[in-house]
């Protein structure tokens, strides 16, 4: 189907009953910029900033980072670009900074690492702010957050970067700040975090891994790793509802956002912003243009109380077959 979907590039992601969806792309390598733009991506919903760190031989300098981030931000400006702060640890290793842990996914990862290496985090945020000068499309997102103090501390680092750069004579602005909802604790922390953030993005890959206690990369348990597990869907539904209640923008940037069956469910939950691999954009846009949101809500009612992923996926597949 992909081949004949090119004509969708300039058409909006709008359902039959005229509800608009924001379709963003996920990036990390500079090579990911173009595929998104070519397919009508409306912004970057997740820039994995650890990827340029992983392909280097040492920690990149502030200047090197500015150059890379500037390319990403300027390619998309004025469309928004959500840059995630360094998310290393877990399965994301830096060749020049080995981390040895028995339980890396439960260990020194994402915000936990960068708060312990405050200067690395400060440099990265300075580089992001410098790269954004004159563009103004940067948003900053924090991975693996589970606690209020982590948010206060990263907020202080951002404030410090802004005031340092202003003192140095740069016209920087404090960008919107968001968090990944990927550690399950966040589901119940949102009211405590609300006043410090502008948006939430659901990282369904890690949320699934941590909710189900299933390593996302272990083939032994790969059959147990599914976002269609009733508890994962319920968790995402709860996050979506809580964000609506708290008047917080919410999106999904995990692999689910590129899976047509999952997209039916996410739209049914009221999620209107998805960030996905550029290559899946045309298909997901086609799907959105061929459904009614009313139908997605009814479908959600049909599946949300089913007891296992098999029955859930069967219902969703049936619906997809009817759509075409
Ligand atoms: C996620 O966890 O769903 C996510 C988008 O982040 P990553 O896959 O980079 O951990
Ligand atoms: Mg993640």
From TrEMBL:
Position of the signal peptide: none
Gene: ptsP
GO molecular function, one term: phosphoenolpyruvate-protein phosphotransferase activity
Claim: Magnesium is one of the keywords in the record: yes
Source superkingdom: Bacteria
Major localisation: cytoplasm
Keyword entries, A-Z: Cytoplasm, Kinase, Magnesium, Metal-binding, Phosphotransferase system, Pyruvate, Sugar transport, Transferase, Transport
Protein name: phosphoenolpyruvate--protein phosphotransferase
Subcellular localization, as worded in the UniProt entry: Cytoplasm
Span within the parent record: 418 to 741 of 747
GO biological process, one term: phosphoenolpyruvate-dependent sugar phosphotransferase system
GO cellular component: cytoplasm
Family: Belongs to the PEP-utilizing enzyme family.
